[in-house]
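Hi W.,

Here's what went into the run:
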Amino acid sequence: MTGRIGLLARRELRAHLVMPATYVGVAAFVLLNGISFCSYLADNDYSDTSIKGFCDSSQFLVLLLAALLTMRSLAEERSSGTWELLFTSPIRDFEVVLAKYLASLCVLTVALLLTTFFPVLLFTFGDPDFGPIVTSYSGIFLLGAAAVAVGIFSSSLAANQALAALLSGVISFGLWFLGSFTGAFSESIGTLLYRISLQRHFDDFVRGIIDTRAILHYFSVLAIFLFLATRSIESGRYR
Amino acid sequence: MIEVLGLSKRFGDVEAVSNISFSCGTSEVVGFLGPNGAGKTTTMRMITGYLVPTSGHAKVAGVDILDRSLEARRLIGYLPETVPLYAEMTVLGYLNFMALLRGVSRRIVGQRVEETADLCGLSEHLRVHIGKLSKGFRQRVGLAQAIVHDPRVLVLDEPTSGIDPIQIAQTKQLIRQLGQDRTVLISSHVLPVVSELCERVIIINSGQIVAEDSIENLLAAATNSQSFELEIVGPTEMVQRSLEEVPHVDEVFYRAPHHIVRYSGGQVTQTQILASLVENGFELLASRIIPMELEDVFLRLTRSAEDNEQR
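Here's what came out:
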């Protein structure tokens, strides 16, 4: 990565690496997913050599990890005064947002890569189906990528980190569970909510199906929230 | 170098800056003075492109800060009121980062950072984490980031706030040096700093410019309404009652063992005061001219603007 976005993303990444919260978050993510992964295998007497246990937990844990990793990205700049420095530097607002996004996504990717230890175990001791494992990881990654964008947007709005994490969690989980409340609304609104919901395509990934519409869906969510984060910063210049 | 034309900023119902215009030339150090909430920081934020003005324009070296924002921002070095630092970075890492962000090429960034650190007295502290530095050194790092890309225009918001007198002297020396070949706009509450550094000051109050001139001219203009001080002996109540009635008497107060009367109306007032002294049998011990300083000019200008507003 070169240029100002790369420069900013690298600084952001270094800031992640000196934060204890990063290590605690990543460790908790791997540990909790590991417990879920093992429990599923044990519950099925080790007959089903899939990463279903991991998928069950990681779909929620990845939303929490994204909220944790992004909470300080812009909120801290605002509270420490470096916000003013950043937004008077010769860099576009969108470039700042993108750099922050890429740095957090990078840490989230590392956390996901650490969990590849689980399929390695399956391949060592059993004969799992390779395809669904790859598609499941793609699904979790895309879900995480969308959640990181939600987190960056929340951090651009919130005055402090705790508020940013809370807002990010509420929006991410809200978008996830949107599909669960379809019965409470009329059919057309219910269908719309289901279509927007982050949950909608996830099961396909776990089953081993990669649908272009699913990829487009997650990319749309992340693009919308990065756009909103940029607009939120821009609107601050008028207030 | 800095041109401000009809700049206004409104926050909701409050007009923080109202239609101000001024300009600062090359190699000029200009002081930007005003009480808290006068609109200094808002104006500086508009010049540096942080805030979008409600109306008006600001140009830096002929480049409009809104139309060609990135280009204009590259020409500015800015030290905000809250020194913007990343505590987890070393001084070297931070200055490198800021230089590259402002477009200094990788080829010369090392040399630029070294020169800047030298200039700001930070050479011995390059490897120290910013979080471990004292407030004075942090202020220096803040100033160093503003000049690391060798900008043509420097905008410094309270560059001497919270540092000790020795560091203030060093900062003044540095700003003087920097002002030799670039435009510097400084806001400060510390008036001696401004009066020593700046050839010209702009005084702003309630979002409007109340005076803009060289310090020499401002003092000369103010001397026309020179203040005097008399030491008087007499019964407190009578002294106050009789003298406060005289037009242009600013204040009458007791400072043991005498009463002090301050007035600024010139010969006519003096005659009236003397008449009152004779009439009441008070004793006049001493009379002196109060030397006019920038602070008095500042207070008088900002106060009269407030009085006008109240009327």
